[in-house]
Write a structure and sequence with these properties.
Elements: E1 4-9, H1 16-26, E2 30-36, E3 56-60, H2 66-76, E4 80-83, H3 90-95, H4 98-120
Parallel strand pairs: 1-2, 1-4, 2-3
Helix pairs in contact: 2-4
The chain binds nicotinamide-adenine-dinucleotide.
Length: 126
């Protein structure tokens, strides 16, 4: 069976760490690359069951890192993205809004740009 790779961001967070094991089991034709910065909200202990799965790869990194994100798109020919990486606790934004701007806006834009660049230059695109 041919294998496609999906990119999951924030896979070590609350939603992502439930999503990744579910997805690996439900969709055996896919490889999962989990890109997570491991902030206070990310915990790899929640993904222990996936560690040895040959269809699972963890990348410790930041979605704002355009070079890294572009490399992942190119290396794995990413066609699908599940974007959970975020600063998600609104209370924190009152004391320190900058990480929210960086991750939620700049990081999301970085992912969209990487997808646009990669997918628009894929064979068959005009
Ligand atoms: N939890 C909920 O009930 C809920 C409900 C509706 C929508 N959402 C949305 O779903 C998304 C995920 O929510 P969650 O509860 O899993 O959040 P979370 O805070 O538990 O997890 C966020 C994950 O993103 C990672 N992360 C943060 N900044 C990063 C960066 N710059 N680069 C890479 N990884 C980074 C963290 O390490 C963490 O693993 C958020 O957008 C949230 O607003 C959550």
């Amino acid at each position: 069976m041919s294998q496609e790779t999906v990119l999951v961001t924030g896979g070590a967070g609350f939603i992502g760490s439930n999503f990744v094991p579910y997805f690996l089991e439900a969709f055996p034709q896919y490889h999962v690359v989990n890109l997570d910065k491991l902030t206070y909200a990310g915990n790899l202990n929640n993904l222990k069951e996936c560690e040895d799965n040959p269809r699972y790869t963890f990348i410790h990194g930041n979605i704002c890192d355009a070079e890294l994100v572009n490399k992942l798109f190119a290396k794995h020919d990413i066609r699908h993205v599940f974007h959970f990486a975020a600063e998600s606790h609104v209370d924190n934004s009152i004391k320190g809004p900058l990480p929210f701007i960086k991750t939620n806006i700049e990081g999301t834009f970085t992912l969209l740009e990487a997808a646009r660049n990669h997918w628009m230059s894929a064979p068959g695109q005009v």
